[in-house]
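Hi support team,

I'm opening this ticket because the web form for multi-chain structure prediction keeps timing out on my end. I have pasted the exact lines I submitted so you can reproduce it. The total is 561 residues across two entries, so I didn't expect it to be a heavy job. Is there a limit I'm missing, or should I split the entries? Thanks in advance, R.K.
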Amino acid sequence: MSQEVKSIAETEEEIVEEFSLFDSWDEKYEYIIDMGKKLKPLDDVFKKDENKIKGCQSTVWMVSELQGDKVIYKAESDAVIVKGLVSMLIRVLSNHTPQEIIEAKLDFVDRIGMKQHLAQTRSNGLLSMVKQMKLDATVYLAQLSTKN
Amino acid sequence: MIETLEHTTFDVKEIRQQFPVLNRLVKGKPLVYFDNAATAQKPKVVIDALTEYYEKYNANIHRGIHSLAEEATAAYEATRDTVQQFINAQHREEIIFTRGVTESINLVAYTYGRTNLKSGDEIIISGMEHHSNIVPWQLIAEMTGAKLRVIPVDDNGELIMEEYYKLLSEKTKIVSIVHASNSLGTINPVKEIIDSAHKAGAVVLVDGAQSTVHLDIDVQELDCDFFAISSHKVYGPTGIGVLYGKKHLLEAMPPFMGGGEMIKDVSFEKTTWNDLPYKFEAGTPNIADTVALKAAIDFINSIGKIAARKHEDALLQYATEQLETVDAVRLIGRAKHKVSVASFVVEGVHPQDLGILLDNQGVAVRTGHHCTQPLMNRLGIPGTTRASFAMYNTKEEINVMIAALNKAIRLLK
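Hello R.K., no limit was hit. The queue was backed up. Here is the completed structure from your submission:
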């Protein structure tokens, strides 16, 4: 039986449901920390400056590649909460087409009460990560359209 | 009647009532504000001074002939007198209003530095400087061909003074040094640094961003050539600061910025500069915030710096003891003399994770490199978690932080 790939909106909804089980802030963070710890580490060869996403406090390294018409993201951070948030972004966006990624609203971050992590403060690399993910998707979209 | 400097009654509850923001909740919990080294909260008198200025006598100063302009000018200049007394400067015109410590340092670098430095000259700073006392000198060094030399820091977070004496030579023209470290709290022996720099023929700028709120500042006793102050770190408004400079030095320095106010006569052939302090205050100044800075200093004087310091030192000691009881906590900066800054790392935990989890418990601390990347590199850490205390903080708040810290570590490990 082939596994059906969920749409971006479906995965977002799924995450929102998971978080609805938690009553308190610490349970939410415990879950995020757990996801952070479980995120597959990025191979050290990718942890170079050109893959760094700028944030004042923590570092995120991210790489992406096009497999067929889908974008695959891999990322890691030196801070575990950021890693957990990164893990959710990958879960939502990875393995989708550039067009779907560009159009993704990503309002789940707000709905699970983590909006502050996408705030415009310089201590925050997550917003830059979302921008970089969409930028990469835009580049792949251009590549795909020239091929066709 | 005999006036004493030492105020015997220090009532922290009464002091807290004067700071409206301390009543608010953060994430549903009472705010514990331990980010005072970044900026202090404002007492009601400062907020009122701002409102009163705008409601009652907002006017452009110095040249206006009407009543509002006179009142605004009087209030603006009264702050200069208050600052003069606050740091015991000899002359009122030695007090220059700037936007803050960063501008004060840049002013000296771009005027004194640019006219007095030449290739081969040396500027000495230390390994614990804030970026604002590194970058302006790098820029000036590049322009003039001067070299930047750095006093190293030991493992306790103190300057290695023997190395400083070795660096000093006839090539040294400027020494620019932080009085108290924003990252570690270390109080540097600035008097010694100044005396030996003078013997070598150099001038000294003291970055007083962190020290002014905690320590008694007497620029004549220190004999520093320049002293930089930030208003918002002494319970005053943001956007205003002070540069103190010895009169003969300021007089010899060219202006920093050109514009209105700083001129005597302007013609297309030749423009002449206004007298001190106005030569360095081009354009319409930040009148409201300057006026409110006086309220902040009056407030500090009404409490007494000695009494406040005693309270803050007790908080630092208590916080240090309590932090040492927390598993995996390592204190960073163990200088003998410190202002009330407790910096630490938790082994295996990223400071940002800690900051996020403390914020969720209403505790505001700062995490990161605190704009002192060279110092963090020297100490071999990416950053710290920093709790910095003000006169309105309490031991109970430290207990809240310790409990929050333990909870955060439990969640992260």
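A quick check on our side: Chain A has one domain: 8-147. Let us know if the file doesn't open in your viewer.
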